[in-house]
Each structure stands twice: as C-alpha cells, then as structure tokens.
C-alpha cells in the first residue's frame, strides 16, 4: 500500500462526518442500539462493532487501520502505553510452567515484567546475547513459548537477525515478539521478515510531539482478537479517543520528521566522531558499528537516537557536560521535536563510578527537529565547560 495513501486517506470516511478534513474525536463512552438482536450479536463478539469505548471506538479504529497497514499486519491494537502493549503481547501467550527466551537488556519495563511479575505465575525467562543465532538455539527448551526481541536496543543499538530468529522460531513452534520502537515501520518491518507480533512505543516517533503516551501491537487478526477479548478488555488499557486523534495527527508528518531527523543525525554523528572528548559514537548506520552490515540489510533507515562514550576520567566531567547543555534537554523518552540527553551515570551511585567501564561513560542523545548547527553549537559550549 502507498505510504501517502495510508497516512492521508486509509480508514477515513469523510462522508460520515460532514467531510471534515480532520476526523472527529469520538468522545463517547457508549453506543446506542435499536434492536435486541444487534445487542446480542455484539455481546457475543465485541471485536465486531461499537458497544463501549473500553473496547472499540471509531477514532481509535481510523488509527488502527493506518498502523496495521504500516506494519504490513492484518490488524493491530493500540494501548495506553508501550509498556501495556509489551505486557499484553507476552501475558496473552503464556501459562504457568512456560519459558521465555529474551534478548539481554530489553526495555526496562519488559525486563521488570520478566523478572518481577511472571515468576509469580511460574514463568521463567532466559536472557541471551541476541547477536548470535546459536545462542537462541541453545536457550530454547521444550517449554519455550515466546522469543522476545528488541532490535535495535535503544541504548547500545544491538540487533538481532530477525529473519534468522523468525525461521528458527517457526520451526520450533515458538511465538516471536519484536519491539520496533527505534525504527518504526517506516524503517523496519519485522512482520515481513516472519516475526509474529511487532510492537512499538507510539509515545516516541508516532506521536512525535512529546504530548502523548501510547503503544501499538500488530499481528494476525486472530491474535489481535484473542488479546482484545482478554487482556485489553480486562485491563482496560486501550488508548483514549483524544490520544488516538493526536497519534493520527502525528502520523501525517512522520515521514518528513524522520527524513529531517535522519539528515541532522548524520551531521551530529560526524561532529561527535571527530571530537577529542568523545571516545566512541554508537549509531547503527555508522560504518564503525559492529553489526553495520546487518543494520543495512534489515533496516531501511536509522535516526535520532545515538550514544557516545565520553572521554572522561571523572564522573563530574559527564555531569558538568550534561548540566551545561542549554538547548538539549536532560529527559527520558525520545521521538519528539526536542533534542535530549541522558547520561548512564544517572543510574550509578557516584562512589561506584568506574572510568574504566565504558558503559559508565555513556550518554544517549536524541536528535530532534532543531537546526543541526544549533545543536552542534550547544554540544560545543558544553564540551568546553567539561574539559
Ligand atoms: C519508551 C519505550 C517503550 C515503552 O513505551 P511507553 O510508551 O513509554 O510505555 C518500550 N520500548 C522501547 C524501546 C522504548 O523506548
């Protein structure tokens, strides 16, 4: 399907709402029926029509059609956070006694689910280095139900060979789930590579303006119905109509935003690579990246997030650098209009800082929509203060 068609037309029927260009926010909790027979039908299958906005809602449906088409999936569900999408995708497919294989260091709240919640139900997780397919083969047990992937990882951008993992999992009858937040479906389509379910935090690039928290999960119609009928309706963690409307608005400009950010990211990477106070720049589309060939093979783009290892002997230099940035904000998340920085040492007690440990000297940047020279000047003055 044509990208322009998906973002500008798909799912939108203007005859239903006075030919308004922007679709209405269908701000209603419930929908009225004229016939008992119709009510009976929707009670049997709530995934079939509008009954109550904890389930289906027309504004959310416009968004669902667009997001599923972008993922080349049969269907998708939109949640009130990316963490919700992660939880629903995993929880819906495990039972007591099952085993999960996950890549090492997945997104924080995926890891907390594996470590703190699922063990209470007798579900265990093995973490592996996902850069080598043999590690997956070795970790699979007779009771392995899910392989959980995140490619690229959002700190060090480590990848998995999605096609190879999908082929292995299919042969073993294991469900594959991939967190695709970094790439979005514009730069990587895991379902086309054989992955069963793909998810992303829509808070990031899809929303794009740092004003909404949401998550998307895509897969087969059958799988989405199973999760809708159980986890989504029970936890009530679907997106609200207003937030769905914000995401529809975000989607209109997604390709231009990514194009702009991609161009700026290249300039920022070049600047940082040549800076004496930077030991290393980690970015999947830089030729120095250890999995550069795989990145080029399975991703059609990369932008925004990158990490440096700062050339610092003391933690104070990293602290001074981050606190001296005037325009680049210190904050979690990414994908919005504003550039961001977040130092790893914020998660380390000062007395445990080890300058010999490369990870302790990492600072992750997100490149937003500002002018590249404006950002580089900000880096320059902050580096000067932290010498
Ligand atoms: C932010 C993020 C999530 C979680 O999404 P929320 O919308 O914050 O719940 C999941 N995965 C990755 C890689 C993320 O960056």
Automatic annotation (TrEMBL):
InterPro entries: Cys/Met-Metab_PyrdxlP-dep_enz (IPR000277), Cys_met_metab_PP (IPR054542), PyrdxlP-dep_Trfase (IPR015424), PyrdxlP-dep_Trfase_major (IPR015421), PyrdxlP-dep_Trfase_small (IPR015422). Its cofactor is pyridoxal 5'-phosphate. It holds the Pfam family Cys_Met_Meta_PP. One of its GO terms (cellular component) is cytoplasm. Keywords: Lyase, Pyridoxal phosphate. Gene3D superfamilies: Aspartate Aminotransferase, domain 1, Type I PLP-dependent aspartate aminotransferase-like (Major domain). The keyword Lyase applies. It comes from the Bacteria. One of its GO terms (biological process) is transsulfuration. The modification N6-(pyridoxal phosphate)lysine is found at residue 204. GO terms for molecular function: carbon-sulfur lyase activity; pyridoxal phosphate binding. Belongs to the trans-sulfuration enzymes family. This is Cystathionine beta-lyase. It comes from Niastella populi.
């Amino acid at each position: 399907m044509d990208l322009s068609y998906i973002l500008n037309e798909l799912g939108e029927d203007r005859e239903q709402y006075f030919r308004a260009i922007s679709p209405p926010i269908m701000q209603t909790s419930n929908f009225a029926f004229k016939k008992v027979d119709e009510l009976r039908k929707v009670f049997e299958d709530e995934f079939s029509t509008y009954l109550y906005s904890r389930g289906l809602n027309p504004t959310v449906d416009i968004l669902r059609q667009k997001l599923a088409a972008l993922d080349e999936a049969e269907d998708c569900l939109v949640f009130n956070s990316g963490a919700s999408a992660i939880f629903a995708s995993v929880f819906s497919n495990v039972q007591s006694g099952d085993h999960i294989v996950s890549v090492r260091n997945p997104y924080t709240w995926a890891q907390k689910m594996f470590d703190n919640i699922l063990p209470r139900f007798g579900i265990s997780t093995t973490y592996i280095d996902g850069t080598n397919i043999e590690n997956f083969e070795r970790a699979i047990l007779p009771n392995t139900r899910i392989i959980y992937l995140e490619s690229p990882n959002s700190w060090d951008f480590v990848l998995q060979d999605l096609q190879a993992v999908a082929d292995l999992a299919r042969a073993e009858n294991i469900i594959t789930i991939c967190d695709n937040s970094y790439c979005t479906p514009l730069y990587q389509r895991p379902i086309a590579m054989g992955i069963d379910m793909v998810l992303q935090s829509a808070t990031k690039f899809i929303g794009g303006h740092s004003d909404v928290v949401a998550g998307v999960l895509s897969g087969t119609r059958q799988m989405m119905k199973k999760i809708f009928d159980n986890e989504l309706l029970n936890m009530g963690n679907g997106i609200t109509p207003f937030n769905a409307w914000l995401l529809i608005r975000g989607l209109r400009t997604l390709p231009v935003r990514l194009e702009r950010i991609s161009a700026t990211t290249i300039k920022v990477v070049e600047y940082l690579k040549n800076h004496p106070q930077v030991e290393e720049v980690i970015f999947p589309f830089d030729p120095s990246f250890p999995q550069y060939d795989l990145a080029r093979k399975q991703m059609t783009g990369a932008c925004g997030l990158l990490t440096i290892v700062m050339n610092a002997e003391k933690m104070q230099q990293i602290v001074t650098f981050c606190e001296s940035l005037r325009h680049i904000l210190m904050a979690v998340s990414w994908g919005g209009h504003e550039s961001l920085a977040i130092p790893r040492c914020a998660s380390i007690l000062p007395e445990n800082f080890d300058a010999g440990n490369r990870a302790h000297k990492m600072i992750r940047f997100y490149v937003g929509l500002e002018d590249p020279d404006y950002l580089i000047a900000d880096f320059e003055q902050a580096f000067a203060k932290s010498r």
